[in-house]
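Our example pasted here:


***
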Amino acid sequence: MKCSRCGSEMKIKSVKVDTDIHGNPIYNKYAYCYTCKIKRNLGQLKAPAKRSHKRKRKKGKLVVALILILLLIIGIGTFFFIKNLKEKQSQNESTVVTPTGNNKISTDSYEQLETGMPYDEVKSLIGNAGNKLLQVTSDENSAERYQWITKDGEGTVLLSFEDGNLISISQAGMETGGSVSLSDEVKKEIKSDMSYKEVTSVLGEKGVLLSETLQNGTTSKLYEWKDSNSGKSFSIVFVEDKLRSYNFNDKKTEQ
């Protein structure tokens, strides 16, 4: 802009004169000629840019605050969910050791045990409840393990139950006979698929049942005998009452 008097170029300047209701400054714009020392008023000018910047900043802070609140809610929800789950798991699974009392088992009672028996029938057969070592429950299944001690105090019997039925029998330290003379002729007579009764007929003595398991409807039994000639023990495995494997110390086989 040129001065109307001298024709010199005028400098455009602005000076803050007020603020609006939002706190934004209002400037008075004018042209000044340094040669003639005159000033020409060009009117007022608002500066809305600052107000827009504040709005964006406030909006950004609000979004950040909402995100933080949402994350906090999710975190609290996750904490209580995990806590609930752990409490439920701890309620469903527990290790229990009942006081040792009348938990003796006789050899005769042990030999009559069979997988598939209900716990109440087992308890009635043995004559006492045994020591409960473990109990695990879920929404669909339950499992328990009990312990009995032989009457001489030298052996231990462990019985496992699933949904109240006997699925596993194992023992250690119980002597129930089983001493035979394992000659070469006797070994030759032991054949695959023989029943337990047929094997005892050949050996002339019942074996010691070390373990019995019921899994997927199939019963497996492990018996042990002692060779009176060598003093060593040998074992035979029966699956569904059919000989499947044996260990004669010097000879092992699996059918």
